[in-house]
Amino acid sequence: MPRWARHLALAALAAPLLACTGVWDLVLARDLQADIILLMGEAGLDPAGLDCATVSGSRRGHCSLGVRNPDDTEALATLLGLTETPISELRIGEADACLSRPEHAGDRPLEAWVGSRLPAELDPLDLSGPLGQFVLVRDPDSGQSCLSADYLYG
Question: What one-character DSSP code corresponds to residue 117?
Fold first, then answer.
């Protein structure tokens, strides 16, 4: 078989696999958005302006929460059982999903809260799956906020 034919055959076999990743990313972003809307409702927050995306090919997603005042951010952090943490103390890669968003790009001081699992009292919520590894980031100057999370199954 000529080399070009082998490459063509390989490309034909790989295309469906690559397409599956894109479909999975869309499903994950949709589920994450629905779950974050539910959690924001539990915190008494309006989900207007929510925009979710995924880290392609992973179980990690992130949602821009839009502009939030400090009380909104604190209410969500409290509901999720997050602990305020200096951004400089986050593990490498921990906040990358949110820091990759344009509204958090640059070298500005940011506030951050982290937590590994939802509190037990939120277990009865009808979420798409178990969420954890939360990082909530807020720019104190602009109020722009972002929440990243992982689905813990896999």
Answer: E
Burial class of residue 58 in the structure, from the number of CB atoms within 10 Å of its CB (0-12 exposed, 13-18 middle, 19+ buried): middle
**Whole-number Å distance between alpha carbons of 118 and 80:** 6
The pLDDT tens digits for 73-106 are 999 999 999 999 987 777 656 566 777 766 666 6
Q: Are strands 83-84 and 60-67 parallel, antiparallel or unpaired?
A: unpaired
46-57 per-position pLDDT tens digit: 998 899 888 767
Angle between helices 3-42 and 70-80 (to 10 degrees): 100
Contacts of 148 (CB under 8 A, 6+ apart): 60, 61, 62, 63, 95, 97, 98, 133, 134, 135, 137
Distance CA 4, CA 130 (A): 45
Closest by CA to 57, choosing from 17, 95, 90, is 17
The beta strands (E) that lie in the chain are given as: 51-54, 60-67, 83-84, 111-117, 131-138, 144-151
**From the CA atom positions of the chain, what is the Rg in Å?**
18
Task: Tell me the CB-side half-sphere exposure of residue 5, using CA atoms within 13 A.
Answer: 2
